[in-house]
Structure formats: C-alpha cells, structure tokens
C-alpha cells in the first residue's frame, strides 16, 4: 500500500490553528472513505510534554498507551475519533536521544554523526514505519513551530528529501493581517514567509490563509502570483463559530478536489452519510439557554491548560441541547470561604480540574464545600477528586488537618497519599500512573447512571491516590465509592450520597468526542442544566 503524505507547515506566528487544519484534512479524507491519520513533529528537546508546565505549554494530553503528548493530539482525536498511539508524536528530544544511543552502540563507527543525513534519515525511517504499521492511505504530518525556526528546520529538510521519492503535498498555513488604518488585507508578510520556505526547497501546493475577514479576489490573486500557487489553491481560514465546521468549510472551497488532483486520484464523491452525521452535530449550535459552569483552578488565565476540559464541556452541553458559559475562577480568589457565595452563587455547576502542587488548594476546597452545601452539581477531575476527599474529611468526617501528602507530608490524616508503586520513583518524566485503565462501576450510583455499564476505560495521569484506610469512615459518613480499579485496590470514582457531586481519579475529558461526549461530563451537564433551569424558574417566581 502506497501511503500519501500531506505536510502542514505554518508561517509567521504560532497559534494559527495548525492542529485544526491538520485534523480537518484527516476528516475530509475520512469522508471520502480513506484511512488517514495525523502525526506531529515538535522541535523541542524535551523527550515528551510530560514535564512541561501547562502555563507555558498548555495542557499535557495523555493517550491510551501512556504517552504524554502535545495538546494538538486532543484536537486530532476529537476530529478523527482515532485512539492515537505515541509513535505519532516525534519530538526533537526523542530523535536526539535515539541517535545518541545508536552512536554509543557503534552504529556509526568511523563516521561523524550529522543532522543530514543521519537525523533526517531517522525521521524518514520513522515516518515510513508509521504508515506501514498502521496501513494508512494518508498520513497528515503537522510540523510544530513556524517555518524559519532552527528547531524544525531538519524536519522540513527531511520532508523535502522524502518528497523526491514519495507522493507528497505541502500546505502552508499563514496569516493575512488587515490593517485598520489602510482597511485592506496585506499580503507582504505571506510573500516573505513563502520565500523562506522556497529557500528550503519547498514550494507549497496550497496556502491556507488565516484572516479575520474574507479576502477579496484581488488579494487572493496577489497571494497566488507571489507564492507560486494556483489562485484556486488559496484557501481561506476565517474565524468561524465552531471549529468542527472547518472540514466542511474547506470542502466548500474545493480543498478535497485539490488534494485528489495533487495525487492524481480518481474523482469520487464523499460519503454523504458520514458528512451528514458530522454536520448534524456541528451546525445548529444555538440553544436558547446557557448552562453556567464555574471552573475553579490555578491555571485559569491560560485556557489552553484546560483545552480538553473545555471541549468535553462543550460536547456534553451540546448533547444536552444547552449552550455553555464558563466562569473562570482563579482559586486564590476563593481562599476565604466568605467569597464563595458571590463568586459561585450564580453557577449551575462547579468543576475542579486536574493540577499539581499546593498553590490554590484551599480555594478549590472552599469551592467544593460551597457546591456540597448549596447542592450545586460538582465534578472533580483527578486533583478535583482528591480535594473532594479532603473537603469531606475535614467538613463532614471532622478530621481536622486532613490533606494529601503531596501538600502536607505531616498531615494528621493522609486521606490522599502517594501510591505504593510510586514510593521509590525519583525520575519525573513518564513515571506517573499513565494511560488507559479499566474502572469497575458500582450499580445504582451516579457513575452507573453515567456509564450504564459495569466497566469503563479512562485515561489517567497521577501519582497520588485516595488512601483506602479511610474508606470505611467515609462510607459511614455518606460518601459512596462508586468506581474502583479492576484489582479493587484503587479508588477511581467517589460521589456524594445526595447524587449531586462526583469525583474521578481519571481524566475523562481526554476521551470526549463531539459525537460521543464523556459519560461523566454528560451526567454532570445534565444535572447542571437542570439545576440552572430550576434556579431560573425560582428567580422568576
Ligand atoms: N497532583 C495529583 C497527583 O499527582 C493530581 C494529578 C492530576 O490532577 N492530574 O496525583
């Protein structure tokens, strides 16, 4: 099977949405019945994203197979529905560590080891390996960073070399600014950026132009002329309400036809059934009512830190036929419980997401207490479950000073403690409990209502865990342990007997897809939407 390659590059600045473009191309190919998968190259020298701070880099996304990868993989999975494996993520760190291992073994005896050809050959070998192992019709390769960065230059060079022997297509995503004072789109930055790419021996086949408003015919013609691209291959990427509309938006501009022509493929039609299913979800996104969810965390200033949580909330709101309004609440602002009513009083639901370290913990505990006491639906994710346990220990079970050994190693009640398997682990990279693990669900609980099944699989990323010594006393005080690991040793889900709040040690947001929202988010959203409705009708009375 001959795999075809589409390489997505970006020019001028980051944040243009290469991940969405890459995913949309995969989706279009899927509409046509092809097997297509996205992969990413990241030039940084970290082995993976596991040790990166979400403040700097956005969310660390976790795959089924334990890989900790760039947040773009979340976008890939949400669009394509594929459970991607870690080999689809190539970083500078992985490449350099592999090449140095080979060098130490003596694989290059007598030679000086060089970026070209040794590193570039390794890249090509890896990419061919992926397409063979996964038997792909198309591999869509996103190159992280922007053209001109030193970090990704050897990767772009490898793609150039590969294009001499393989069917390949280059797409450059660029930005076309509009100057207010002049009132027109300016093409010069893109002209210069394309020159940079051409100096590297690559002429793009398609330009995707990010712009805040539609481009005129003249601007498109100018871009085409200076970039060596046919005017029909200037594709617009303007701000749209719903990113999941992007594949359709690109198809309306003929990107599907351009791809087929580039690879001299027979014209065929997309499978209407697949297109319609996707459209039915993406279009008609307006619902009369918004459900207001407060996210209480410490990285709230950078929403990218919680990209999958936002996506899962959006998926579940839509499936519940409700709009969504997120209130971002920096947990430090809730340090004093007396602020809770004014900050959270209008929320239909409260969510505490995952996190590390003890800054902001107290505010999150206060948010949970407020939700419990005011019967506001609550969803705790990973750290959010651990804090749900700590709040319950202190406020309901009367264990003053209860904490997690992560925050207070000398706490009198260590209701959350380091997992036994983690005690001897010193190295920080890739050593947490990671990836997909089965969860066994107890009947007639909120968790059961959510999953409708005795077993679920969710992804994880944690070192600490509920301390089982306290299960009995918690149960006596009304906490329900509704999900356990399949060996029965680790608490996976706990919930309040009231049926209003639930916490999970897992990260269900990583598996949420637009057409299949994460079950716990669905249940949380259903409760929140209902609580919003009844609060509003009370206010009306
Ligand atoms: N810091 C906690 C732990 O390591 C929670 C992790 C998380 O929220 N992802 O267990």
Explained architecture:
The chain contains 18 helices and 23 strands. It has 541 residues and is α/β, with parallel strands linked by helices. The protein folds into 2 domains: 279 residues, Rossmann fold (3-Layer(aba) Sandwich), CATH 3.40.50; 251 residues, Class I glutamine amidotransferase (GATase) domain (Rossmann fold), CATH 3.40.50. A 9-stranded mixed β-sheet has the order 13-12-14-15-23-22-21-18-19, sandwiched between helices. Helix 12 links the parallel strand 12 and strand 13. Helix 1 packs parallel to helix 3, helix 5 crosses helix 6 and helix 14 packs across helix 15. The radius of gyration is 25 Å and the shape is globular. The protein starts with a strand and ends with a helix. The mean pLDDT is 95. It binds glutamine. Glutamine binds next to strand 19.
CATH topology of the largest domain: Rossmann fold
| Low-pLDDT segments | none
Number of helices: 18
- What is the level-2 CATH architecture name of the largest domain? 3-Layer(aba) Sandwich
Q: Given the helix and strand composition, which structural class is it? A: alpha/beta
**Radius of gyration, Cα only, in angstroms?**
25 Å
Average per-residue pLDDT, rounded, comes to 95
From the N-terminal CA to the C-terminal CA, the straight-line distance is 67 Å
């Amino acid at each position: 099977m001959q795999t075809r390659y589409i390489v997505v590059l970006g020019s001028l600045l980051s944040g243009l949405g290469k991940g969405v473009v890459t995913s949309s191309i995969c989706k279009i190919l899927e509409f046509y019945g092809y097997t297509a998968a996205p992969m990413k190259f990241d030039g940084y020298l970290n082995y993976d994203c596991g040790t990166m701070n979400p403040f700097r880099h956005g969310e660390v996304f976790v795959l089924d197979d334990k890989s900790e990868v760039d947040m773009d993989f979340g976008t890939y999975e949400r669009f394509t529905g594929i459970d991607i494996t870690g080999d689809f993520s190539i970083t500078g760190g992985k490449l350099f560590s592999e090449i140095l291992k080979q060098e130490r073994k003596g694989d290059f005896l007598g030679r000086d080891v060089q970026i070209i050809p040794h590193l570039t050959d390794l890249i090509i070998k890896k990419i061919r390996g992926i397409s063979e192992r996964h038997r792909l019709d198309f591999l869509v390769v996103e190159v992280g960073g922007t053209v001109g960065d030193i970090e990704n230059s050897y990767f772009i060079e490898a793609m150039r070399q590969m294009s001499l022997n393989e069917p390949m297509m280059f797409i450059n995503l660029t930005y076309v600014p509009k100057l207010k004072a002049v009132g027109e789109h300016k093409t010069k930055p893109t002209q210069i950026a394309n020159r940079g790419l051409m100096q590297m021996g690559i002429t793009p086949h398609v330009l995707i132009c990010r712009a805040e408003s539609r481009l005129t015919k003249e601007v498109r013609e100018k871009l085409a002329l200076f970039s060596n691209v046919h005017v029909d291959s200037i594709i617009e990427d303007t701000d749209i309400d719903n990113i999941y509309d992007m594949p359709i938006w690109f198809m309306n501009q003929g990107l599907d036809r351009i791809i087929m022509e580039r690879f001299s493929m027979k014209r065929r039609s997309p499978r209407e059934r697949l297109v319609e299913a996707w459209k039915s979800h993406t279009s008609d996104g307006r619902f009369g009512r918004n459900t207001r969810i407060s996210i209480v965390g410490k990285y709230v200033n950078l929403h990218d830190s919680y990209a999958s949580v936002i996506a899962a909330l959006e998926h579940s709101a839509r499936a519940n036929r409700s709009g969504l309004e997120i209130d971002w609440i920096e947990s430090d602002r809730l340090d004093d419980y007396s602020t809770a009513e004014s900050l959270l009083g209008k929320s239909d639901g409260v969510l505490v997401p995952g996190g590390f370290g003890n800054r902001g913990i107290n505010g999150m505990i206060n948010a949970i207490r407020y939700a419990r006491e005011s019967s506001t639906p609550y969803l705790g994710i990973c750290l959010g479950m651990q804090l749900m346990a700590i709040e319950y220990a202190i406020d309901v079970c009367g264990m003053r000073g209860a904490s997690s050994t992560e925050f207070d190693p000398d706490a009198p009640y260590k209701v959350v403690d380091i997992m036994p398997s983690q005690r001897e682990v010193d190295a920080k990279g890739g050593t947490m409990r990671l990836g997909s693990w089965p969860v066994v669900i107890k009947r007639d609980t909120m968790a059961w209502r959510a999953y409708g099944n005795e077993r679920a699989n969710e992804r994880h990323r944690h070192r600490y865990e509920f301390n089982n010594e306290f299960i009995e006393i918690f149960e006596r005080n009304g906490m329900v342990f509704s999900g356990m690991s399949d060996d029965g040793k680790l608490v996976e889900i706990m919930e309040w007997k009231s049926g209003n709040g639930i916490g999970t040690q897992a990260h269900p947001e990583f598996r949420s897809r637009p057409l299949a929202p994460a079950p716990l988010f669905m249940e949380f959203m259903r409760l929140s939407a209902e609580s919003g409705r009844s609060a509003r009708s009370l206010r009306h009375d």
